Amino acid sequence: MVGEFNIVVTGVGGQGVLTLSRVIAVWALKSGYKVRVGETLGMAQRGGIVQSYVRLGSDVESPLIEVGGADVLIALDYIEALRALGFLSGKSKVIVNSRTITPISVLLGVERMPSFIEALGALRSSAGEVYVFDASSIATKVGLPASINMAML
Is the pLDDT of residue 148 over 60? Predict the structure, then answer.
């Protein structure tokens, strides 16, 4: 690989965002790529926003991904996919879970929660390709409801 490949993984605390990022990073290292990983933790607890950045390639030095710089966005929660729109460009690919965890701001009546259809429209207008599936159901069907991250992989 020449250059770089940038992946943003997003979700909420407890969904396994950081674990999924580490799995991708270990695969990349074992495949011979140079890897940098960084993260942003909104509230480092269940329900808080979590974003992780995985950069791989021959030239990567920093873990930070610039605006419009994501090649792939993996969203374990569709609301968190909306918070990551700034990382997308017309060539980005999005893999998004069709389920969400209702944000605290919505439960408190501070914000309105967009429907999945609204979120999908925003993602499709910001990215080149969008792939949707119900990772929550897949994880539940195999008896591991906390393994949404591995279902997304």
Answer: yes
Which of 135, 55, 49, 128 minimizes the C-alpha distance to 94? 128
Which amino acid, residue 60? V
Tokens of 26: 């270990």
- pTM, whole model, 2 decimals? 0.90
pLDDT at 42: 65
Judged on CB neighbours under 10 Å (0-12, 13-18, 19+), 52 is buried
* Category of 26 on φ-ψ map: left (φ > 0), alpha (ψ -120 to 50) or beta: alpha
Q: How far is CA 36 from CA 17, 54, 153, in A?
A: 16, 6, 19
Tokens in use for 92?
Answer: 């980005």
Q: Which of 35, 151, 131 is nearest to 81 (CA)?
A: 131
Domains belonging to the chain, first-starting first, are 4-152 (3.40.920.10)
